[in-house]
Amino acid sequence: MPRQPDALAPSSSDNAPAGLVRLPVLRAVAGVTEAVEDWLADEVPVAMVFNGISHAVMMASPLDLEDFALGFALSEGIVASVDEVRDLEVRPAACQAPGAPAAWEVQLEISPRRLEGLKQRRRTLAGRTGCGVCGIESLQALELLPAPRPAPDWLGQVDAALLARVMPQLRSAQPLNAQAGALHVAAWADLAGQLHWAREDVGRHNALDKLIGVLARQGQLGAPGVVLMSSRASHELVAKCARVGLAALATVSAPTALGVRAAQAAGLCLWGLCRPPRAVRYTPAG
Asked: Does residue 84 contact residue 114 with C-beta atoms inside 8 Å?
């Protein structure tokens, strides 16, 4: 599968980091207002196209789109492994009105068996920032509680001491958020407390899918370690982790009640409110 560059979309100016745009704003500080330029997070439509069939349009940060598409395909159960993605190409969307914001599409070629399963699902998403179940055709099609998975023998090592070492590293893994203040991060750390990969996006679901994509490419899905996120733990984030074999999730904010129930059903180790020296475990660690 060909590797695309991590930063795929051009920025609004030659010096702008990918994923950010610089716009004029009025900044008020202590009663004094001044006209300045400030960095803002870019947000663009990204179409997921499987074997020529448009399946989902997500609003996302325009970077790491190959990781995003691969992670989305895995976390949504469209494919079960990287090997089932025969080809992947990121390119500007063909149908863009003059003057409209940039849009991107990812063309994925998947195995015939997986394509047939996708057609049977007939599920078309119109994803927005913070939206996790858009496009479900009925409540009967909504699977809130993931299937249980066997707990790996290392899961008990994801403890408060480990999180106290790794959670402070999240700040250095968010360079775009440091400039724009509007992006989430999903990162992965091993049991030694070393942070290895991180992906930013305006949407927390997108950030997790991007992380899943890079972990899959590196052959690290299911490896001993913990997913770290700057967001809350909602049920869809738990379900995405469980579906791809990520057994531990730790978030800066608290989980939702359904997120905890989903983690309990899946056997996933879930920590929340991870703001050292504090951390709260919501499900057993093994």
From this structure: yes
